[in-house]
Amino acid sequence: MWQWVFTRIEPKLTRLKNEIGKTLGEQLDTEKQPPVQ
Questions:
Q1: Are the C-beta atoms of residues 16 and 23 closer than 8 Å to each other?
Q2: How far apart are CA 20 and CA 34, in angstroms?
């Protein structure tokens, strides 16, 4: 499963064009942001 996330969701250009891809992509982008201080 983690391989699928890194190959399909991580790169913005290859994200799924549906609600699942949008939701997982937004969550991943949020997790990757530096912490707010």
A1: no
A2: 24
